Amino acid sequence: MKDRFRIKFTKPDLKSGKGNLIDLLLLIVLFLILEFEYYDFVNLPFFQEKMGFDFAFSFPKYFIGKFMLVFMLYINSKMKEISYFVNTAFLIFLTFPTVIMYQFMPDTTVIISLSAILFHVIYFTISQFNINLGEVKKLKIKNKQKLWVIIGVAGVAIFPLFLHFGFNLNFKAFNPYKIYEIRALSVNHTHGISNYFYSWLIKIIIPIGLIMSIKNRKWIWVFVFFLLQIYLFLTEAHKSAFISLFVLLVMIIKTFRQQTRWMLITVIFMVIVSRIVSIMTNDIMVESIVARRTFFLPAIISIDYFDFFAHNHTYLSHSIFRHFIDYPFDLDPPHLIGREYFFNPKANANSGFISDGFMNFGYIGIFLYVTAMALVFKTIELLRISPACSGIIIIIIYTFISSFFLTTLLSHGVILFLILAYFLLRNTNGENA
């Protein structure tokens, strides 16, 4: 190790941590817009019948929700640089929706919102520790070789998928009404190690390659990585493969502080535009994807997990401990919740790290998983990666919010990202995008 691994505690940098007034106003505006979306759109009779959304106003719960909002904004204002960006992203995609649903959804336990807030508190505390990771000199890769390394990794991962899919592409995947139909009827579903390669490629490897190609102005490779992502989207019609391209390209400039504001503006713009499209076309599909699917569906699935597993903790018997502990149900958790709450055993109702922790170990599991999450993003912070990679961070954050913790680490490639980031993206913060 070039530098010894060392830890020290530093006082919060209150000067740089003070939230910009514009950011604060944007956060408040977004929260109010999401409140309106839930009140006026998400609790439509159709969504109530199919997904269990509901609405009931309670002044005490509304007051508590606003108190939680003020506390969250205060914590956020004390953070800086990448931790400020990460914390704000979790506010947008996790904590705001859970607090709003606590306010308006009847019989919703406050513990889900408090668990989300606990993440912000623990992450803020851990972010104050200054840790030097050191460097493995024997495995150091020269800057000129880094792009070729990710090209090679992408080539190895895409090869078995290309053999499996060939040129059997379905351009109907661009039709939002056909995506789920294609997913359900496809005969080309991946299996075994190909499952890992597919997810690693669309969420980690191709995004890293695309960003590195843009930063190095290697436009041929930008085009190649772009085509690879579209190719994979047209094989399995995973929305994340297509949406991630938009996220990556939108979030490739500026500092993390500026990226945070840009992220807020983009999210607000998308929600408002989706609302306008619904009004002008009398078609709720776009608004449903943007407002309901992105923000509130993960939240209501979390509520369902807390309700079902309140007295039925699984202790990872559906996962790594399945050979040691008997799993008590006939379906895995996502399909079990799909059957019990969405009346469809084929529905894959995946949930995020908070409900995953509760499902497995109860309230202790919440603390363990929330702390583990904070450590994951503290590790990413210590790598000092370029703000151009903020789109990848958003993809990782949203994956953690909508998938099991260990699944996200392994199947969705977060551990792979940490390894690749250590050797290819480390200490790039400060470089020009």
What features would you describe in this structure?
- This protein is mainly α and 433 residues long.
- The protein has two domains: 6-132 and 253-425, no CATH class; 137-250, no CATH class.
- Helix content is 69%, strand content 2%.
- The protein has a two-stranded antiparallel ribbon.
- Helix 2 (21-42) packs parallel to helix 5 (81-104) and helix 5 (81-104) runs parallel beside helix 16 (390-402).
In short:
With 433 residues, this protein is mainly alpha-helical.
Write the layout of secondary structure elements.
Elements: E1 6-9, H1 14-17, H2 21-42, H3 45-51, H4 59-77, H5 81-104, H6 111-127, E2 129-132, H7 143-165, H8 179-185, H9 193-215, H10 219-236, H11 239-250, H12 256-281, H13 285-308, H14 333-342, H15 353-382, H16 390-402, H17 405-410, H18 414-425
Antiparallel strand pairs: 1-2
H and E string: EHHHHHHEHHHHHHHHHHHH
**Content-based structural category:** mainly alpha
Strand order of the largest sheet: 1-2
Radius of gyration: 21 Å
Total discrete domains = 2
Distance between the termini: 29 Å
Strand content: under 5%
Largest β-sheet summary: 2 strands, antiparallel
Q: Give the count of helical stretches.
A: 18
Shape: globular
Question: What is the typical, i.e. mean, pLDDT?
Answer: 88
Unreliable stretches = 1-19
Characteristic terms for this protein:
single chain, 69% helix, mainly alpha, 2 strands, 18 helices, two-stranded antiparallel ribbon, 433 residues
